[in-house]
Design brief:
- By secondary structure, the protein is of the alpha/beta class.
- 35% of the residues lie in helices and 13% in strands.
- The strands form three sheets. It has an eight-stranded parallel β-sheet with strand order 1-2-3-4-5-6-7-8, with no helix packed on it. Strands 12-16-11-13-14-15 form a six-stranded parallel β-sheet, sandwiched between helices.
- Helix 2 (87-90) links the parallel strand 3 (78-80) and strand 4.
- Helix 6 packs across helix 11.
- The chain is elongated.
- Keywords: Glycoprotein, Immunity, Innate immunity, Leucine-rich repeat, Membrane, Receptor, Repeat, Signal, Transmembrane, Transmembrane helix.
- It is a single-pass type I membrane protein.
- Belongs to the Toll-like receptor family.
- Residues 296-437 form the TIR domain.
Length: 452
């Protein structure tokens, strides 16, 4: 016998059509209730609705433009929310309002514009057998069905799936242990690429009943038959192997190229980098460094090899310090004890007006002599605005082919003098060195030379 009920509902602010219907039907024996093709909109807000009649088992609210829905399901076995707009709401909420035991067996959420579902959407519904998510916009399984031991059919057809992730595959395998479980993935653009290879392998071994399209697709849209699946897997693996080899080869080639570029830049600017490092280190040790403002601790830094020590300690000191009123910084006398030699050298160059290099063949063979020469070049370029601070003194005849290219550039600028080693020439020689050292002084003060 079929029961019919007529309702006249007067709507007002804060009033929801479901409440008078539920109230009037609460003591009835009604099992099936269909309220479809209306415009209920937001008429089912959470926490404001009466529970359904205890006798109700089948509730159909399809095509009502529902934007939200949360109801105490009571004894309802079959709930249809098809063709509404619940996608946004169900991404963070469940349609089941309370935490009470649910008898729900069938839920239809198809055509709701769903892109993502809340993880707890199906929590507390152990009797669910059929879930319909057909014709939505799902790309990934974000909901948990691992505890639905009665679930037999999950309809994911006509969505945006291209593959299943590992968590979903493991979860579906677990469900099959309890029931004959089917997943419908038809009318999804499933891919057969290197990235989806784990999914393809799972298809070949899983016991879950899968409903698939006839073909899967490459990213460029070319289709391949799913069956035989092992043949498809071999074909994809073959393409991935060549692709992986190409990627590795290109990656290695790019890495080698970048390393070579970095090494070339480091080599090209090696002295600049070392200069900056040691200059920064000197500041770290709080050793005062002069700026190019005409005020220096020393008037010159003299670079020489140990074989020419007697010339520096006797001739240079006597002519430039004792007789020339120059303040000298001698390695043995003025370098800070306990300080790194490289830091001492950088500080001496930075705190001196000029750098005088005593050139012999041994000079080129000495690591620290060439270090001093290159640090002076960097000081000239980066701290003195390219105003030459280097002056070369040749104690012996040296052929141009024996000299470094950078030193030849200085010789072309006439920044050098040869030692005459005779009484008359020596007077002019020392005057020329003094002139070179103090050439940039407008108002001469006390003179000084730092001797390595």
């Amino acid at each position: 016998m079929t029961e019919f009920y007529n309702f006249i509902i007067y709507c007002s602010f804060g009033y929801y059509p479901w409440n008078p219907i539920s109230l009037n039907l609460y003591n009835s024996s009604l099992k099936n209730l269909r309220m479809t093709d209306n415009r209920l909109g937001e008429s089912f807000p959470p926490y404001k609705l009466y529970p359904p009649p205890p006798s109700l088992q089948d509730l159909n609210l399809s095509r009502n433009r529902l934007q939200q829905f949360a109801l105490d399901l009571g004894n309802i076995r079959n709930l249809s929310l098809q063709n509404n707009v619940l996608g946004g709401f169900l991404s963070t909420h469940s349609y089941k309002m309370s935490n009470e035991y649910s008898w729900l067996e069938i839920i239809d959420l198809s055509i709701n514009g769903i892109e993502k579902l809340a993880f707890i959407l199906f929590k507390g519904q152990p009797n669910l057998k059929y879930i319909n998510l057909n014709r939505n916009k799902l790309q990934k399984v974000t909901f948990d069905v691992s505890r639905l031991k009665s679930l037999r059919y999950l309809d994911l057809s006509s969505n945006n799936f291209t593959t299943l992730d590992e968590k979903a595959m493991v979860m579906f395998d677990g469900l099959f242990k309890n029931t004959n479980f089917t997943v419908n993935l038809q009318k999804n653009a499933l891919l057969c690429t290197c990235n989806t290879l784990p999914f393809l392998k799972w298809i070949s071994i899983t016991k879950v009943n899968l409903l698939l399209n006839d073909k899967c697709y490459l990213e460029d849209g070319i289709g391949f038959s799913f069956y035989p699946i092992n043949s498809l897997i071999q074909q994809v693996q073959k393409g991935c192997t060549s692709y992986t080899t190409l990627v590795i080869a290109l990656s290695v080639g790019l890495a080698v190229m970048l390393i070579n570029i970095v090494l070339a830049l480091v080599y090209k600017y090696r002295w600049k980098l070392r200069y900056m490092f040691y200059l920064a280190k000197s500041k770290h040790y709080r050793y005062k460094a002069s700026s190019d403002d005409g005020e220096y601790t020393y008037d010159a830094f003299i670079s020489y090899c140990d074989d020419d020590r007697s010339f520096v300690l006797k001739d240079c000191i006597e002519n430039l310090e004792t007789e020339g009123n120059a303040k000298l910084c001698v390695h043995q006398r003025d370098f800070l004890p306990g300080q790194e030699i490289t830091v001492n050298i950088t500080n001496a160059i930075h705190d001196s007006r000029k750098t005088v290099c005593i050139i012999t063949r041994k000079f080129f063979e000495s690591y620290y002599c060439m270090f001093e020469f290159n640090m002076a070049r960097m000081e000239n370029i980066y701290s003195r605005h390219e105003r030459n601070i280097i002056f070369l003194v040749f104690l012996e005849q040296i052929q141009p082919k024996e000299m470094p290219l950078m030193m030849l550039e200085l010789i072309e600028k006439q920044s050098y003098i040869e030692y005459p080693n005779d009484e008359d020439g020596n007077i002019v020689f020392w005057d020329k060195i003094k002139e070179a050292i103090f050439l940039d002084i407008c108002c001469p003060k006390t003179f000084g030379i730092c001797v390595h």
